[in-house]
Amino acid sequence: MHPYYLKNKKKYNKEIEKLLGFGKTEVEELFKTDFYIVVEQVKNTFESKLLANLPYVGGKRNANDTNNLVGCCEYAALFLVGKDYNLSNNQIGELLTKLEEKHFKPLPLIAQKGVRMLLKKSICA
Q1: How far is CA 99 from the centre of its chain?
Q2: Measured between alpha carbons, how far is 47 from 92 in angstroms, rounded to an integer?
């Protein structure tokens, strides 16, 4: 694992916890297990299968690309864990959409619609 990602691992874990925390009930209902078990599995998958192999793209000097790449890996970790629970891509995609909608709820309605549209396009692609 690149030292930059190792240094920021705690931050990434908090991001995963925060994102999943927007839908604790939905996560437990979908995965049919305790919320904290799912969170730990997603964090472990993110770290061991994705972050460990992630190329360094510039860190703070290239913050947008780094944040986008790490964020995509956080989402991918949820998909990988979902596969272990025999969940479909659509089920995980719908969950991620709900989580992000709750995350961006304070945004104005037009921005919420834009985020929803972008999420649906990226999930369906």
Answers
A1: 9
A2: 19
What is the rounded (10 degree) CA torsion for 110, 115, 121, 122? 170
Exposure string over 39-65, b if 16+ CB within 10 A, otherwise e: bebbbebbbeebbeebeebeeeeeeee
How many C-beta atoms surround the C-beta of residue 101 within 10 A? 16
Task: Answer for the pair 22, 97: CB distance below 8 angstroms, yes or no.
Answer: no
pTM of the model: 0.79
Query: Which residue bears the tokens 């709900």?
Result: 98
Phi-psi region at 33: left, alpha or beta (left = phi > 0; alpha = psi -120 to 50): beta
Among 46, 88, 99, 91, which Cα is nearest to 69's?
A: 46
Per-residue pLDDT of 101-124, as tens digits, reads 887 766 677 876 777 777 776 555
pLDDT in tens, 13-40: 999 999 999 999 999 999 999 999 999 9
The SS3 of residue 88 is coil
Domain boundaries, the chain: 3-124
